[in-house]
Amino acid sequence: MVFIFLSMITATQHKINDLLEEFVKHLIMQRYANATVKAYKLSLAKFLYAFRRYDLATVDEQNIFNYINHLISTESISPSFQKQILSAIDKFYKFKYHKSLALKSLYPKRKSKSLPKYLSQSDIKKILNKIDNIKHKCIVKLLYGSGLRSQELLDLKISDIDAETMVLNIRNSKGAKDRFVMLSQDVLIELRHYYKEYKPKDFLFEGQTGGKYSAKSVQNIVRKSAVRAGITKRVTPHMLRHSFATHLVENGVDIRYVQELLGHTSIKTTQIYTHITDATKSKIKSPLDLLYTR
Question: Residue 292: helix, strand or coil by DSSP?
């Protein structure tokens, strides 16, 4: 009896794995970015396991409504994760069953009003001053100095560096888009020292046995460097990207140029940085100060 039960579990897991493999191949064929494929795969895996006893072909909008409502109630999933799960389910059913589900009403209506977290330029300096390892320093400088996403950094190849025009070629990024971003002269000098010491073969940053460097390693480098610099807030690689955008806006760079450098499809996504620029650097005086100058 136990053997039969275990066999049923194994068969179910194999079925889920086969469906996920098919789905991933479909997304890759559709040229979705690696990070997007990974996110959709994880979201779909969660859904498939929850519906493992269902005939997936008969699952309807009400079933999915109950599922999403359960996740909100029991796991307090974020609006962004809610959207990600629904999008993965929608794409799966269109691909596997050629079925369009009416899920629009299940997407969160209220958008988060939280502003991106970023670091001051003095904090960036503190972090860089606490990094001795040349590889780690290049990673942090590229995340901040070129405004890269963590995955974009990991996907960089040596051939993507154009020292003549001082740009980095970011290939097949989020939204399957290519773009060029600036390469700091300071970073280029550091990269040359790094290359002589580490001699990467294909990717700019590689693991000890070759291949891509891991996202976890990048996270640890940023976090530990910030701790050594005495910064109490939790610092992430993406916070360095937010800092890049914020500091460009603070220094008067046109928002549309910032949009292109970040690779944003919509200007609305970039405009959030206009709300978090450092007010102390603005020439606009507070109305309260004006009371005492007249």
Answer: coil
- The class of domain 2-106 in CATH terms is mainly alpha
pTM summary value: 0.67
Q: What ranges do the domains of the chain cover?
A: 2-106, 121-281
Alpha-carbon torsion, ordered 93, 97, 101, 107, to 10 deg: 0
Residue type, 192: R
Closest CA to 118 of 228, 230, 222, 236: 236
**Class of the domain covering 121-281:** mainly alpha
Give me the residue label for tokens 């993406």: 238
Residue 23 is predicted with a pLDDT of: 93
- Calculate the CA 25 to chain-centre distance: 21
Q: Angle at CA 262, nearest 5°, toward 221 and 157?
A: 55
User: What integer pLDDT is reported at residue 8 of this predicted model?
Assistant: 44
d(CA 128, CA 229): 8
Q: Are 30 and 43 in contact (CB under 8 A)?
A: no
Question: Quick count: other Cβ atoms within 10 Å of Cβ 222?
Answer: 25
DSSP state of 106: G
Sheet with 179-182: list strands edge to edge: 161-162, 167-170, 179-182
3-state secondary structure of 168: strand
- How confident is the model over 244-277, as pLDDT tens digits? 999 988 888 888 888 888 888 888 888 878 776 6
Query: Residue range 139-165: average pLDDT?
Result: 94
Q: What is the pLDDT, as a whole number, of residue 10?
A: 65
Spatial CA neighbour of 180 closest among 202, 165, 158, 194? 165
Catalytic residues: 149, 174, 238, 241, 264, 273
* C-alpha span between 241 and 2 (Å, rounded): 52
Taking each helix axis from N to C terminus, what angle separates 237-250 and 121-129, rounded to the nearest 10 degrees? Answer: 140
What are the structure tokens assigned to 266, written together?
């919509």
